Amino acid sequence: MSHTVSVKTQVKDAALVEAAAREVGATYLGVGSHKLFQGSKQGIGVKFTGWQYPVVFGEDAVHFDDYNGAWGDRKQLDRFTQEYAAQGALRHVRSNPAYAQAEIMRSTLKDGSIELTVSLASSSVDAGTDPFQG
After folding, report:
1. Domain containing 57: what range?
2. Is residue 28 within 8 Å of 21, Cβ to Cβ?
3. What are the residues whose beta carbons fall under 8 Å from the beta carbon of 98, sequence distance 6 or more?
4. 91-123 pLDDT, tens digit each
5. Pairing state of beta strands 55-57 and 40-47?
6. Residue 6 lies in a domain
7. Is 71 within the bounds of a domain?
């Protein structure tokens, strides 16, 4: 059985933010108040290499001052968001008993996209069970 999944990502889980930050070489600042150019914002902070100010993942929005790219490269934020989604998918796979015998392969495509392939042994999943549900 094959599934292709597209993910719309909302960044809310501090543990996943920390894992994604580590993976992309950013600094995890934790949950709290983070200073931007004009004022501070509450949320989960991440500081990317070369950025003047941190990115803050708030309750309802992502806050950052990149001064149209002069203070930070948005490609780093895009890469981080993709890594955050990949970390969430990996956590789901690893925590689901249906995937206990699964082989996980990760690759980075030419365009920078992350591809995760989860291969299940045919005997590890009941015929009527879809491990992607739930």
Report:
1. 14-99
2. yes
3. 120, 124, 125, 129, 131
4. 999 999 988 888 999 999 999 889 999 998 765
5. antiparallel
6. no
7. yes
User: Which residue blocks in the chain are alpha helix, DSSP H?
Assistant: 14-24, 74-95
This prediction's pTM: 0.80
**Domain assignment present for 35:** yes
Distance CA 120, CA 65 (A): 43
The band of 60, judged by pLDDT with boundaries at 50, 70 and 90, is confident
Which residues have a Cβ under 8 Å from the Cβ of 52 and sit 6 or more positions away? 37, 65, 66, 67, 71, 72
Name the token pair of 7: 């993910």
> Does 1 reside within a domain?
no
CA distance linking residue 37 with residue 88, whole number of Å? 30
